[in-house]
Amino acid sequence: MSGFFERVGGWDLQLETKKDFEKCMERIYAWFEGELLDRPPIRFARHNAEFEMKEYDKAWNSLRERWFDAQYVVDSFAQGVRGKHFHAETFPMFWPNLGPNVFAACYGVGYEFGETTAWADESFSLDEYDFPGIDWKSEYLKKLDEMTDYALESCSGLFMVGYTDIHPGLDWAAAMFGTQELLLAAYDAPQKMRTLGTRALGDFFRLYDHFDDKLKKARQLSVTWMNIPSFQKLHIPSCDFSSMISREHFREFAYEGLKQEMEHMDQNIFHIDGKHVALHTDDILTLPKLNAIQWVQGVAEDEPIMQWVPYIKKIQAAGKGLVVDVTTDELDDFMDAVNPRGIYLCVSTKNEEEELEVIKRAEKWAARSRS
């Protein structure tokens, strides 16, 4: 075992698609610890590639049937990564995806599948719901288990396997009861509203640990949709619902649940989706087990990234890491304005040559910061 793996309690996956796995993980762990090695970590992706329409070579009777075809989903992913090399901290990683509200679906709320995402519909009434807890025999949990198990059978030497996107707290409550009912409850039923931030945490911890144990027994890592892996327990907390509430209501209804949610983990990267969620940044930064923030700036008037440099520096000054999307066109200006320490770059690229050029620019950026 190498010195790095021994220090962090890690292991080598020996991926043919990722020969530099150990060095990449070393950069990521330096980032977790607020340190900088030869350069900051970089993830490459084509912008919104996961949402592009594609041709399927198989027909299904419904969209739900397509999403539930575990063997096809996993085999298609494996076929797509075979023979490729993934540059920088971009990992070949399959995660079982049934949409962002699948946790609420496991409680029996209506669930609808679209081409590229899924959502809760036919919400429950907050006044009438008696909180029976998660349905551990849910078809969604069975399907997530099936996808995970089949991926673990297929992944050896080729790709990593992660866990699904799980949202407890007020985002879970909004899927369960509807956004409008929750907003009204903040004023009409504050005591009930306070309980929603923590109501599903017991089920969340049990579900998270179920998949974490399954993955770790197979010598996989803790990783999900953000594609940042850990040898311990990594989580992506969020509260998109907070974009519609005041700072006072965030502290009253959301904060405690998020705090408990994160205490269960070893690393936490908070997903801040846009400027309205960012209004709560000062409170988010006080969460005790926060490692980093993923800043999602939005589109149109919220682009380009340079207008958010003061915000980025504020997070750095608080001693927290930052995951940030930067285009190749604005990368030089960004590097001139921001210190690389604590930055995890996500860069949209067109081809392999562009990726290799970005890596060279990031290495020079890190070298300049030391001079």
UniProtKB/TrEMBL annotation:
Gene3D superfamilies: 3.20.20.210. InterPro entries: UROD/MetE-like_sf. This is Uroporphyrinogen decarboxylase (URO-D) domain-containing protein. It comes from Christensenella tenuis.
